[in-house]
Amino acid sequence: MPLFGGIFSPKEMPPWKSASLSNLHSFDRSTQEVELGLDYGIPTMNLENKFENGRWIAETGISGGVDRREQLEEENSLLQLKVDILLDMFSETTAKSLLMEKEMDAWKSVSQRRK
């Protein structure tokens, strides 16, 4: 004998009908390519290394009169400099923001004392 007398038997729910909110599926292929940017051309790659015996081997040589390693070291030092500059800018902005917050708190306390 059921405890609740069959009152608590849930009814089966009908399956969900998922309706797309987008009307892009109704467009033809050329319109979809224009709207979604699907026409991106043929992919290309430029590999400067060799793949031999299951390993990538760096091409050591001179490209344009400058050693590749020197180019990478120069690029790395430039990127390090950029990171340092950005960190300095971030620190300066944070310090200014904290000072402004302190000034605002001071003005709030002064205005509350006057009331």
Automatic annotation (TrEMBL):
It comes from the Eukaryota. One of its GO terms (biological process) is negative regulation of Wnt signaling pathway. GO terms for cellular component: nucleus. This is Protein chibby homolog 1.
